[in-house]
Design a protein that fits this description.
By secondary structure, this protein is of the alpha/beta class. Helix content is about 45%, strand content about 15%. Strands 5, 6, 7, 8, 9, 10, 11 and 12 form an eight-stranded mixed β-sheet that branches. The longest helix has 24 residues, at about 5-25.
């Protein structure tokens, strides 16, 4: 390896370690650490991507790494040392990195930090033993279990078999899904070498550079999980309709509705996140009115024909993409979201025109953020009518009470899974 590339790899490993420690020790989400002044900020784009891949893979397979490391440790090491051991173990056994380089790099990381330098010898000894393990030992390990606070809730909600399937989906990670601007999934699949899914998305297998895919520069598609594209598809915005996208960032649903010809207002509370919506709209040559405001305080002179509310939630349906979530959050941090979701549903209904329709969705696996919210909304507003979804791609196992859909990561397991989502439609009386 040439010297500049080697230095870049060293910086990527160090940044990955900083990300892992921040998640595990400070309970911070990786998305919070990706901005300016974060561990990734000084890196070149290629090294930044490598650091993110290393951190994500380590968090995704941490349970397996701990199982491998346990026989070689008399007692759990200090958290900073444990993070180094986990990173190197996953890099070797999951990522296929050369053992010599990964072990030496881990020892160098230990020596570079006063908190870990005294245990550099332990790092070296343990990882040399890990490096001698046959690949079959790693491959035979079961998928890492979800943390107890989340596993127990999902077990109660969906059953043990579903939880095991969800954990397998998390360990497998997520493919890349694209939404075509013109709706022609077949043509986009042919152009990109992907597969057209029944729902209208295009799925790309393997690791690819997004910006190098055909059509990126022309803005004819955008990255969006197949499940995340369904709320806007089910809303079915029509040309000329006045549509509101509440909690709009990063803008995939806004772009879907704008591409359908609707007059879209996109609202989000975050300036930084709304800047991403603006960038995405510019790249795809689509237009929407952008509003930075608190949805609970904001009002409009005219009511909307349709509203899509993708409410703030635990995001537990996206763990296969964001394995930091279960470590950075716990049950206590999720509970304040439940009353917020109820308040946002009520606010959205107040902004809806008579006869208008509301899609409420969350990327959550918790019934408290889906089924229970819908039932409570119908109790508070008995004049509402649930919208029956009749799209031909809806599978029977997705349907749940009040005409809603419940999607889980273990669905579509044979073709790469999907994010977990709850989607419900409500119509206001005319």
């Amino acid at each position: 390896m040439d010297e500049p590339r080697e230095r870049g790899t060293e910086r990527a490993r160090a940044a990955a370690l900083d990300l892992i420690r921040a998640v595990l020790e400070d309970r911070r989400l990786m998305a919070e650490l990706a901005g300016s002044d974060g561990p990734l900020d000084p890196l070149e784009p290629s090294d930044r991507a490598r650091a993110q891949r290393l951190a994500v893979s380590t968090l995704r397979h941490m349970g397996r790494a701990d199982a491998v490391l346990k026989p070689f440790l008399r007692r759990p090491p200090p958290p900073p040392v444990h993070a180094i051991l986990r990173l190197a173990t996953v890099e070797m056994l999951e990522g296929g990195a050369a053992a010599h380089g990964a072990v030496n790099a881990a020892v160098a990381l230990a020596r570079a930090d006063r908190r870990t330098e005294a245990l550099a010898g332990l790092v070296n000894a343990v990882l040399r033993k890990v490096a001698d393990l046959p690949a079959s030992d790693w491959q035979a390990l079961p998928p890492p279990r979800l943390p107890g606070w989340l596993r127990g809730r999902l077990d109660s909600a969906w059953g043990r078999a579903a939880v095991v399937g969800i954990e397998a989906a998390h360990a497998a990670g997520a493919p890349l899904d694209l939404t075509p601007k013109d709706g022609d999934a077949g043509a986009l699949a042919e152009a990109t070498g992907g597969v057209a899914l029944p729902t209208g998305s295009v799925r790309i297998a393997g690791s690819v550079q997004v910006s190098a895919l055909p059509g990126y520069g022309e803005g004819i598609w955008w990255v969006q999980d197949a499940a995340a594209s369904l709320p806007a598809r089910l809303l079915a915005a029509r040309p000329g309709e006045r549509v509101l996208d509440l909690c709009a960032a990063p803008g995939g649903k806004t772009m879907q509705m704008a591409a359908a010809g609707a007059t879209v207002t996109a609202l989000d509370i975050s300036d930084q996140r709304m800047a991403r919506v603006e960038e995405n709209l510019a790249r795809t040559d689509l237009t929407a009115e952008l509003v930075v405001a608190d949805a609970l305080d904001w009002d409009s002179d005219a009511r909307f024909d349709a509203i899509l509310l993708d409410a703030p939630c635990s995001a537990t349906g996206t763990i296969r993409r964001h394995p930091d979530l279960p470590f950075a959050k716990d049950g206590a941090s999720v509970k304040p979201l439940f009353p917020l979701q109820s308040a946002l549903i009520d606010r959205a209904l107040g902004l809806l025109a008579p006869g208008g329709r509301l899609i409420f969705c969350t990327c959550s696996l918790l019934p408290e953020e889906g089924e229970a919210q819908l039932a409570a909304a119908l109790d508070r507003h008995p004049d509402l009518t649930p919208v029956a979804f009749d799209a031909p791609w809806i599978e029977p196992g997705w349907r749940t009470a009040h005409e809603a859909l419940r999607l889980r990561p273990d669905f579509w397991a044979e073709c790469g899974g999907m994010d977990g989502f709850f989607i419900a439609g409500l119509r206001k009386p005319a």
